[in-house]
Amino acid sequence: MARAGRIAPACNQVTVVSRTHLPEVRQMLRDPASGSIVLQPRNRDTAAGVFLPLTYVRARDPHATVVIYPSDQFIYPEAKFVDAVESAVEAATRTNRLVLLGVAPESPEVEYGWICPAEKLAVVRGRTVRRVRRFIEKPAQDEAEAEFAAGGLWNTLVLAARLDVLWKLGMRFFPEMIRLFDMLADSIGTADEGYVLDAIYRVMPAHNFSSHLLARAIDDVAVVELRGVLWSDWGKPERIADTLRQVGRTPAFPLELLEEPARAQAGAEQRICAAAMRALPEDTTRRSSMSTQKPSKPEQAGLAGDNQKKPARRTGRVDPTSEQIRQETAGLQLQGGSGPSWFSSENLYARIAEAAYQLYERRGRQTGHELDDWLEAERQVLGSRGKPSGPPASR
C-alpha cells in the first residue's frame, strides 16, 4: 500500500481483502491512510478479484485510469518501479491498451507466467511499449528455456489501463460476471450494499484474469519492460529466503521451514513474511495489497476524466472507507467473544447466503435473479430468527 501511495494518494486507492484474512488486516482497517478497503466474501479466482475493486472505482469516476497491483511481490529499488508504472499509465492512455510490466528473467523459471513481446508499438518516456505475441502460464521446462533465450519476460501482473477499456473487455469475456457487478454498483452507498455483495458472490462465476481475459485479448494488451530492479513473487517461502540473501540479509525465520512445505502451507508463510519484512532495509516497502487506483497527478498527459465525476444517484458513501469498516469491525473477536454476529462462524450472512443459493438451485441456476433471491432468503431467515444483529437491508 505504501508502494501504491507513491503514485496515487490513499483516497484514490481501493484494496481487496478476503474476509478470511480479517485477523491479519484488522489494524489496516482502522488506519485512514489505508484508503478504501473492500472485504471480498470468498475467493472466486482473479477476475472477480480485479473487477470487484473496479466496480467501486467506476462508481466514483467511470473515466479513471487505474493501476492494479498484486499483493505478494518484492520490488527494489522502488523509485525505478514507480517510474515504470507512470510510463505504463501514460502508455495505457495513449494506446487504449492494457499495459503490463514485464521483468527480464534471471532464469527459465517454470512457476512464473511469461510474456512473449512482439514488435514495437510506441515509445513513452524513453521506454519501448511492445505488442504481446502470447502469454505462457507456468510453462514446461523446454518452453521456459526457449522463451528465456528469445527475450521473453516474467509477467508481474502489474497493469495500467483505462477503466472503460477494462470494463468493455470484461463485458466481452465475462458478461455474466459484469452483470453481477453492475447490480453491486446500483447498491453502493445504500443499506443493501453488504447484502448484495454477499448475494452476488454466492453465484459469482470463477474466471482467471490472466488466462481467461489477457490471453484472449492479445490485441488489446501491451508490455513495458521493468528494468534495473530486483523483483520476486513472494508466493513461496524459499523465494523470500532467496531475496533476502540477494540483498545481503539473513533470514530471521528457521530455515528448516523451507524443507517442510506442508507446514509452510498451514501458516508458516505468514510468519516467514513477517520475519522477512523485519530483515529488509528501512527504506524498502515489502508488500502492497491488491489495489486499483486512479493516478492523481494532473500533469500526467492523457488521464481523461480525472476531474469528471459520475452524477450522484445515491446517498451515503460511494465506497466502503476504512473508517466505515473500522466502525463495523470495532470490538470484533474472531475466536469467541462479542462483535457483529455477521462476522462469526455461525453468522447470519452465511445462513442467508445458503438460503439464497438454494433458491438459485431450485430455479435451475438461472442468473439474473440474485438480488430477489437474496431478499427472499433474508425474509425467510429473519422470519425464523427475528431482527438481525448486522446492518438491516432497506425495503
What would you note in describing this structure?
This protein is an alpha+beta fold. The chain has 2 domains: 4-234 and 287-293, Spore Coat Polysaccharide Biosynthesis Protein SpsA, Chain A (Alpha-Beta Complex); 332-384, no CATH class. 40% of the residues lie in helices and 18% in strands. The strands form 2 sheets. It has a 5-stranded mixed β-barrel with strand order 5-8-6-7-9. Strands 4-10 form a two-stranded antiparallel sheet. Helix 2 packs across helix 5 and helix 6 runs antiparallel to helix 7. The longest helix is centred in the last third of the chain and has 19 residues, at 261-279.
SSE topology:
Blueprint: E1 13-18, H1 22-30, E2 36-40, H2 45-60, E3 65-69, E4 73-76, H3 78-95, E5 98-103, E6 113-124, E7 127-137, H4 141-150, E8 153-162, H5 163-173, H6 175-187, H7 193-202, H8 209-212, E9 221-226, E10 230-233, H9 237-246, H10 261-279, E11 291-293, H11 322-329, H12 348-362, H13 370-385
Parallel strand pairs: 1-2, 5-9
Antiparallel strand pairs: 1-11, 3-8, 3-11, 4-10, 5-8, 6-7, 6-8, 7-9
Helix pairs in contact: 1-11, 2-5, 2-6, 5-6, 6-7, 7-12, 7-13, 9-10, 12-13
